[in-house]
C-alpha cells in the first residue's frame, strides 16, 4: 500500500480535491480505507464497483484502480466518474502479475478468493482449546453476505 500512498502524495494527485479508489473486493476497500485513515489521508472514497456505480459526486478529480476492472467497459464507466465538474482529471491503474493472475483465476472459481475462504474456515474451525466437540451453525444467506461468497459456493463447504 506504500505505492498507493506515494501516488496520492505525488503531483497531480496531491492537488486533487476528491479521489475514488476502486478495489475488487470488500476486504480490500476495508484495508485501504484503514491504511489511508491511519495516515491522515482525507477526501478519498475507497469503493468496490458495486458501491462506486451509485456514487454521484461531481467534484471527483481522480480515479485510481487498485485492482484491474473486469472489462474495458467497466474501466471506462469508472474513470468517467472523474472530471464531471469540467476540470482536468487524472487516472491511474496499478498493474502487476498478481493483478492479472488473481482475476484470471477467479474467473474459474466463481469469484471466491482465498481471503473469503480463509475467513469462512476460521469461523467454522476455531483454534479455541475448548472447541472440541462443539457444533457450528451457520445460516446460508447471512453467511453469504458476511463472507462475500455466493450461497451456492458456501454450499460446497457444508457437509
Automatic annotation (TrEMBL):
It comes from the Eukaryota. GO terms for cellular component: chromosome; cytoplasm; nucleus. Residues 1-132 form the Helicase C-terminal domain. InterPro entries: Helicase_C-like, P-loop_NTPase. Signal peptide: none annotated. GO terms for biological process: double-strand break repair via homologous recombination. It catalyses: Couples ATP hydrolysis with the unwinding of duplex DNA by translocating in the 3'-5' direction. SMART domains: HELICc (SM00490). Its EC number is 5.6.2.4. GO terms for molecular function: 3'-5' DNA helicase activity; four-way junction helicase activity. Belongs to the helicase family. RecQ subfamily. This is DNA 3'-5' helicase. It comes from Camellia sinensis var. sinensis (China tea).
Amino acid at each position: 500500500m506504500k505505492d498507493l500512498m506515494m501516488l496520492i502524495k505525488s503531483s497531480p494527485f496531491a492537488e486533487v480535491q476528491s479521489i475514488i479508489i476502486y478495489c475488487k473486493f470488500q476486504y480490500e476497500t476495508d484495508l485501504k480505507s484503514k491504511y489511508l485513515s491511519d495516515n491522515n489521508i482525507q477526501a478519498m472514497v475507497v469503493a468496490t464497483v458495486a458501491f462506486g456505480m451509485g456514487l454521484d459526486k461531481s467534484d471527483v478529480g481522480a480515479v485510481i484502480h487498485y485492482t484491474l476492472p473486469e472489462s474495458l467497459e467497466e474501466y471506462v464507466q469508472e474513470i468517467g466518474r472523474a472530471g464531471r465538474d469540467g476540470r482536468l482529471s487524472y487516472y491511474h491503474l496499478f498493474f502487476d502479475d498478481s493483478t492479472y493472475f488473481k482475476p484470471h483465476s477467479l474467473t474459474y472459481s466463481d469469484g471466491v478468493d482465498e481471503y473469503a475462504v480463509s475467513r469462512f474456515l476460521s469461523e467454522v474451525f476455531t483454534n479455541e482449546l475448548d472447541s472440541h466437540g462443539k457444533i457450528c451453525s451457520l445460516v446460508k444467506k447471512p453467511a453469504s453476505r458476511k463472507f462475500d461468497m455466493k450461497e451456492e459456493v458456501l454450499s460446497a463447504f457444508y457437509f
